[in-house]
Every structure is written in C-alpha cells, then in structure tokens.
C-alpha cells in the first residue's frame, strides 16, 4: 500500500511539473510575441530617419520605410535584432565593418552588422545612391514610389519576383507615400510633442492647413471659422466620419486650434509615450485626444469607468494596463 501510494504521489508530482513547464513555456511565448514591433511601431520609430535620408540622399522615405518593414519583419528578424541590419544588405567586397553570418540564398552568407539601426538606415541610403545600377532611380520624381519599387526589383535588389508589389502594397496600406510629400516633410521630420499642438503650422495651397502626424495618424489644427463640413469636404470624408474619428457630437462646433484627426484614433499612444501626469483642468477626453487615443482605450488601460474623476498629479498609463495595486 505504501508503494502504491508513493507511486501515486510521484505521478501527481510529475504531472504537476509537466503542467507548470507547459504553461511557463506558453507564458514565455506570449510575452515574446507581445514585445514584437508592429508595423505601426516600426513606422513611429524610424519615419524621421527615413525622412532625413530622403532630404540628404533623395531616396523616397516611403521606399526606405517599406523596405525596412519588409526586409526586417518590422524590426523583429534575426538580422535586425542581432546585427541592426534592417535592409538585408550583404557584405560585398568594400565592407570593412563588423559582419554577421546567416543562411539566405546560400548557406552562411555574410551580412553587414551595424552599431545602431540609424547606421543601417544611413548605409542603405549610401548604398543606393553610390551604385551605378540604381542610378536611374534618382531620375524619377521623389513621389513616384511605384517607379522606385519596380526599379529596385529590376536592378536586382531582391530575388523575390513579387518584391515590387510587396513594397507598393505596404506603402499604400500604411499611407507611407504621405512622407514623400513636400508640404508635410517639414512637419513630419520634427520631433512632435503630443502634449502641445504645433504653433508654427502654415496653410498649404488648398487653405486647409498642413497635415501633420500624431501617433501615426493624419491630423490638422482647425483654423478660425473652420467647420466640420468644410474639413470633411476638403479631405473627401463624410461629416459623420469626422465626428466619429474625433469623438464629437453633432452639435459640437470647432474652435480655433482644435486638433482634428482625419482617421480613426488608436487604442494606445505611440512608442516612447508610456505615461501622462494629469495637469489641472485636463479631462479624459483632452488627454486621450492629444495622444491620438480613444477615450474608451484610455479608461480601460487605467481601469476606470465612465464618470471617473481625475486628480492633478495622477499618473495615467498610455500603452500598458495600469498594474493592479
């Protein structure tokens, strides 16, 4: 009886150990997955580098971002995480820097390794602008992303027969071509402080005001006398859409300087903006709106319900759930 009881205890202990190991491994997988960059994260992190290289080397920012997203899996690939190489550039004979070896078209191929992602971006622009086979691309308009995508494939940048279509698809899906537009380059290349609206926005030729980026979303600052109907008409939207994007009621009128989003707000603030300290007079709406978030998302992240009050000095979480106290 003691033997059988001992065996039963050992079996239960072994089953519990397997149970804990399985769920521990499952938790690790979930954690690793949660830490991966999304496409939106990637764009937020590296759009300024892409715009800077466009200004210096004339490579369209949309092309740079799309190639980086595609080649690095939004910065999650082995080559990106271990070698900071976001464009799949191999060593070639002239490379004198550090190297990283991995299987690609052939086993154990040599890839360039960089000290930082920004070095990878700079080298990508130098790589394209210094090689004769890409020379024809620089005769295209900076806004001709389709020509650039097809030209890169024709020049042999990648062996995938669908490479050009993949780049074009990414550019159009995430509206990366907007980063190539001259009227928004200045606004988008500046670090944007979401707690304060730009004070130097100039009107563009259409009179609607310069479109700038908040949390990866197109937005503008309402001018004096500007209406929802006028903005909706200028940007091909319905008034109901504009109201929904900005969580406005039918009777709400716009005021000068009001931040107006031209597409749906997100469920989190942009990477790097993790928390917000409440100031006197701020509301859930004003805080959520300045970060390009919905009120519902801000309330959920901070475990609050409708009708909750705010206290000056209180910390609000913008990307992760507030820890349980």
Would you kindly provide a written description of the structure presented here, covering whatever features stand out?
By secondary structure, this protein is mostly helical. The chain folds into three domains: 39-180, Orthogonal Bundle (Lysozyme), CATH 1.10.530; 183-261, no CATH class; 275-317, Membrane-bound Lytic Murein Transglycosylase D, Chain A, CATH 3.10.350. The chain has twelve helices and seven strands. The chain has helices at 2-34, 39-57, 61-72, 78-83, 117-129, 145-154, 163-173, 182-189, 228-234, 239-245, 284-290, 295-301, and strands at 99-102, 109-112, 212-214, 217-221, 259-261, 275-277, 315-317. It has a three-stranded antiparallel beta sheet with strand order 3-4-5. A hairpin with a 2-residue loop joins strand 3 (212-214) and strand 4.
List strands and helices in order, with pairings.
Blueprint: H1 2-34, H2 39-57, H3 61-72, H4 78-83, E1 99-102, E2 109-112, H5 117-129, H6 145-154, H7 163-173, H8 182-189, E3 212-214, E4 217-221, H9 228-234, H10 239-245, E5 259-261, E6 275-277, H11 284-290, H12 295-301, E7 315-317
Antiparallel strand pairs: 1-2, 3-4, 4-5, 6-7
Helix pairs in contact: 2-3, 2-5, 3-7, 6-7, 9-10, 11-12
Q: Quick one: how many beta strands?
A: 7
Average pLDDT reading? 81
Which bin fits the share of residues in helices?
Answer: 40-55%
State the strand order across the main sheet: 3-4-5
Number of domains: 3
Enumerate the spans where pLDDT stays under 50 for 5 or more consecutive residues: 27-34, 183-208
Structural class category: mainly alpha
Named at the architecture level, the CATH assignment of the largest domain is Orthogonal Bundle
Report, as a whole number of angstroms, the end-to-end distance.
48 Å
């Amino acid at each position: 009886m003691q033997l059988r009881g001992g065996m039963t205890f050992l079996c239960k202990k072994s089953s519990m150990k397997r149970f804990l190991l399985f769920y521990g491994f499952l938790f690790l997988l979930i954690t690793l997955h949660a830490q991966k960059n999304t496409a939106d994260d990637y764009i937020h992190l590296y759009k300024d580098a892409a715009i800077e290289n466009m200004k210096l080397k004339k490579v369209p920012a949309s092309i740079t971002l799309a190639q980086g997203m595609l080649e690095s899996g939004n910065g999650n690939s082995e080559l990106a995480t271990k070698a900071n190489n976001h464009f799949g550039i191999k060593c070639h004979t002239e490379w004198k820097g550090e190297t990283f070896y991995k299987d690609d078209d052939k086993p154990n191929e040599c890839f360039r390794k960089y000290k930082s992602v920004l070095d990878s971006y700079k080298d990508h622009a130098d790589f394209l602008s210094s090689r004769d086979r890409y020379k024809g691309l620089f005769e295209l308009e900076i806004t001709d992303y389709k020509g650039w995508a097809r030209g890169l494939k024709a020049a042999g940048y990648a062996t995938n027969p669908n490479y050009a279509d993949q780049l074009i698809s990414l550019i159009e899906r995430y509206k990366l071509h907007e980063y190539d537009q001259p009227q928004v380059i200045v606004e988008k290349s500046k670090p944007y402080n979401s707690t304060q609206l730009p004070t130097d926005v100039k009107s563009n030729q259409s009179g609607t005001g310069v479109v700038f980026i908040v949390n990866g979303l197109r937005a503008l600052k309402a001018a004096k006398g500007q209406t929802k109907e006028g903005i909706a008409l200028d940007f091909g939207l319905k008034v109901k859409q504009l109201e929904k994007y900005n969580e406005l009621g039918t009777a709400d009128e716009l005021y000068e300087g009001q931040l107006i989003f031209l597409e749906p707000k997100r469920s989190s603030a942009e990477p790097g903006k993790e928390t917000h300290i409440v100031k006197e007079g701020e509301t859930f709406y004003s805080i959520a709106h300045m970060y390009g978030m919905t009120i519902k998302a801000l309330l959920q992240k901070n475990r609050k319900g409708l009708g909750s009050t705010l206290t000056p000095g209180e910390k609000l979480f913008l990307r992760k759930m507030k820890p349980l106290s």
